[in-house]
Amino acid sequence: MLPRLERYLLQDFPFIHVIIGLFGNTAFLAGSVCFLFPPLERVALWLFVAGSLGMFVGTVGEVFVRHARRSRGRTDS
Question: Is pLDDT larger for residue 7 or for residue 67?
Answer without folding.
Answer: 67
